[in-house]
């Protein structure tokens, strides 16, 4: 659950989940490229994780921390 909005990540559909992650980051003034820079990774790496094509604990933790949620709230199958 997002502590700021009180909303839960609702979709198990990867495309919708990716869009929801992007929208929530954007609402906080953060992009996936910002996450990539903070981790010294390429934006493609972060996009691959958000899209479900790859997994990185570092990326998942950074996104969850930025959104103030647990990893399991975003990716229930990864926790």
At a glance:
The chain is mainly alpha-helical and 79 residues long.
Using DSSP, what is the number of strands?
0
**Would you tell me which CATH topology applies?**
434 Repressor (Amino-terminal Domain)
Q: What structural category do the secondary elements indicate? A: mainly alpha
Level-1 CATH class name: Mainly Alpha
Number of helices: 5
Domain tally: 1
| Spatial gap, N to C terminus | 14 Å
CATH H-level homologous superfamily name? lambda repressor-like DNA-binding domains
Keywords:
single chain, about 80 residues, 434 Repressor (Amino-terminal Domain)
Structural description of this entry:
It is built from five helices and no strands. It is mainly alpha-helical. It has a single domain (14-78), classed as 434 Repressor (Amino-terminal Domain). The model has no long low-confidence stretch (mean pLDDT 86).
